[in-house]
Amino acid sequence: MALTFPASPPSLFLFFFFLLLFFSLSQAQVQTFTYVNEGEFGPYITENDADYRVLPPFSSPFQMCFYNTTPGEFYLALRMATRRSESTFRWVWRANPFSPVRDNATFSLRPDGDLVLANPDGKIVWSTNTANKGVVGLKIVPGGNIVLYDNKGKFVWQSFDHPTDTLLVGQSLPCQRADQAPQQE
Ligand SMILES: *[C@@H]1O[C@H](CO)[C@@H](O)[C@H](O)[C@H]1NC(C)=O
């Protein structure tokens, strides 16, 4: 199939210039990251006696972590910890309650705006299905809601819409639709 381009060289140049500019702008906007489930475990005792690895997303008293209670079976989770004492380290949200991941799994916000948890072989275990929906970043907002927001600050996805076994203040329990019901793999 032949594509017709503007005829004269200067306009052809401009065409590709703006095409490139468009792609670089639309990609560069997303604050991408990739965190690998590796390294030392954290020093504190947590609920369920779990081992954990702290991840950068943090908003006191909430912190994202990988944790496991069985070797090699990790959950991507949100920890709530108001004090460094045993009783207050709780897991209040899990991304993948039925599909644990292994060491070296990756948690990433991709350039297309999808938030993805994948095993080291690249197999995707969980994602927010937010590719190409305008997501520019991830943050934890007060109350412990993990959100993906667009460039107007609107929440494209929020963990409060996907509760696991703990409800935080301000979080409601949505009527569960059949397509969102937990599924055992
Ligand atoms: C994780 O990856 C690192 C670096 O590639 C490797 O040295 C380590 O053995 C891996 N860990 C596991 C449990 O596979």
From TrEMBL:
SMART domains for this protein: B_lectin
Stretches assigned to coiled coil: none
Annotated Bulb-type lectin domain residues: 30-161
Name of the protein described by the UniProt record: Epidermis-specific secreted glycoprotein EP1-like
Pfam families linked: B_lectin
Keywords in alphabetical order: Signal
Swiss-Prot/TrEMBL GO biological process terms: response to other organism
Bilayer-spanning residue ranges: none
InterPro entries, per database record: Bulb-type_lectin_dom (IPR001480), Bulb-type_lectin_dom_sf (IPR036426)
Signal peptide (from-to): 1-28
